[in-house]
Design a protein that fits this description.
Blueprint: H1 6-62, H2 71-78, E1 83-88, E2 94-97, H3 111-116, E3 121-126, E4 133-143, E5 146-156, H4 158-208, H5 222-272, H6 277-308, E6 317-320, H7 321-338, E7 342-347, E8 354-357, H8 359-375, E9 382-389, E10 395-401, H9 408-411, H10 431-441, E11 445-451, E12 455-462, H11 473-484, H12 490-493
Parallel strand pairs: 7-9
Antiparallel strand pairs: 1-2, 1-5, 3-4, 4-5, 6-8, 9-10, 10-12, 11-12
């Protein structure tokens, strides 16, 4: 007995479809073969009745004045095997018959009135005297167009029905054999489907219990193979995500412990007292710096959490892309100076590029990208920032460095959450993941192209604001004046361009 499930449903559906089909075929076959046999018998008696009628007309004309004692000759000439030939008068009385037992009553079956009316009558029914099933065919015997007698052929259908019954039993046996074969085939088919599903279910249950090293074995085809491959891939991704999560927890614990240790140490030191103002100022500066570092780490984690829950709200406005990049460069200038890295800005547009977005969030993206470029660049190198317009009208910012680069093995993973190529470099591994999502919230794209030992280029593409209100000359003078306040450092940022921030 097949237990409940898909296997039983498959077998049951196959069984029902084949059973109904065979049942209909059996009925059609039985009716067809019965009709064929009955029609053959009828046609045989019908043909002989024509010959008998023709003979009678010819014989009767030549013996019109004699008593019809010629019926005996007629019966002998047209008698059929296993068939009774009777000559009836107009009242249905038997005048002559090939059967020695004469009927004691007039025959009034349905074929007789038809013959009296000039047609050929056919009747199938049971003989009143014997109860056996017979077929009767009656044809009028006419003289000068008037029906005088009736030639009636009667044959038993019992032998025919016996043969039909045997054929029916044989066809039922064949149908049962076909049904059994189809059932066995459907069971095999059901097992070929159910066994892989059960295997996949068992492995999935192991995965649900946290055993992610379990894998689905077997070379399954079609949809089952795709399902097995998908579940195996899911398990691999979960293992990878857990590894990344564990590494993140370890990394963030270290990142948090370092500033906390500094804050705790200097707090205890300053609490003990006895320091001159310079030492106190130094200690307070370190505490403030480490506090800001902690705040940055916590804010990065909070930003990522908001993005994951779709809770980050953007304050949309019109942002001058060049001014935003200049502010970013000024914010990271001190860090670049420590490694003697030059920041070069090239604006390839003919007029200010205005994008619609959240200026603070976009600045966060570029700060992260440029900060990474500085972190992984060699000393006394350069970082090239380019603003341009693409053929489709979108604005593009490229940040290119000549740093250590990223290997092809890790290039497609760098924007994954918690992923870090160099775990010794610090950080949470969330910066690029957050930047990617912020850019996507602005309906833009972020791409990374890198070659190990050559450098990395990060491109950020953003849609240009429609109907942007460009600042006039007097209004634009203020930002330029503000940025010129840092012009003393402009030579350090890019000695080759006077207008670079």
């Amino acid at each position: 007995m097949i237990k409940k499930g898909i296997g039983r449903q498959i077998v049951l559906h196959y069984f029902i479809v084949v059973f109904v089909t065979l049942f209909m075929v059996e009925i059609i076959f039985t009716l067809t073969i019965r009709t064929y046999y009955y029609d053959t018998i009828y046609n045989h008696m019908y043909t002989h009745s024509i010959w008998a009628s023709d003979y009678f007309q010819k014989f009767a004309r030549s013996n019109s004045e004699r008593d019809p004692d010629y019926f005996t000759e007629m019966l002998r000439s047209f008698e059929l095997d296993n068939t009774e030939l009777m000559i009836l008068d107009r009242n249905g009385e038997v005048k002559a018959s090939t059967n020695a037992f004469q009927a004691d009553k007039a025959i009034q079956t349905g074929d007789v009135p038809v013959a009296l009316a000039g047609g050929v009558g056919k009747w199938v029914g049971r003989q009143p005297s014997t109860g056996e099933l017979v077929m009767a065919v009656s044809r009028p015997l006419q003289i000068q167009g008037q029906t005088q007698y009736i030639a009636r052929f009667v044959t038993s259908l019992e032998r025919v029905n016996s043969k039909l019954l045997n054929l029916t039993f044989l066809s039922i046996a064949v149908a049962a054999a076909v049904l059994a074969i189809v059932t066995l085939f459907s069971i095999g088919l059901a097992n070929s489907i159910v066994k892989p599903i059960n295997n996949i279910r068992d492995v999935s249950a192991q995965m649900a219990r946290g055993k992610f090293d379990a894998r689905i074995r077997g070379n399954y085809k079609y949809e089952l193979g795709e399902l097995a491959a998908t579940l195996n891939y899911m398990a691999e991704e979960i293992v990878r995500s857990n590894q990344i999560k564990d590494e993140f927890i370890s990394s963030i614990s270290h990142e948090l412990r370092t500033p906390l240790t500094g804050i705790k140490g200097w707090s205890e030191t300053l609490t003990s007292g006895g320091f001159d103002p310079e030492e106190t100022k130094l200690g307070m500066g370190i505490i403030a710096k480490e506090t800001n570092r902690l705040i940055g780490l916590v804010e990065e984690i909070l930003d990522f959490s908001k993005l994951q829950q779709n809770e980050m709200k953007l304050v949309i406005g019109q942002v001058n892309l060049k001014e935003l990049i200049q502010e970013t460069m000024l914010n990271v200038w001190a860090k670049a100076e420590q490694k003697q890295i030059q920041l070069k800005l090239e604006d390839r547009t003919e007029q200010p590029v205005i994008v619609s977005g959240d200026g603070n969030r976009l600045k966060q993206v570029f700060l992260n990208v440029v900060d990474n470029a500085i972190k992984f660049s060699h000393e006394q190198s350069w970082i090239h920032l380019v603003i341009s317009l693409k053929e489709d009208g979108r604005a593009m910012v490229e940040v290119a460095d000549t740093g250590i680069g990223i290997s092809e093995e890790y290039l497609h993973k760098v924007k994954d959450r918690f992923f870090q190529v160099n775990h010794q470099g610090g950080g949470t591994g969330l910066g690029l993941a957050i930047s990617q999502q912020i850019v996507e919230l602005h309906h833009g794209e972020m791409g990374i192209h890198s070659e190990l030992g050559v450098g990395t280029t990060v491109t950020v593409t953003l849609p240009v604001a429609e109907d942007a209100e460009l600042p006039d000359a007097s209004a634009s003078a203020a930002p330029q004046g503000d940025s010129s306040s840092g012009s003393e450092n402009a030579g350090r940022l890019d000695p080759e361009k006077d207008d670079q921030a």
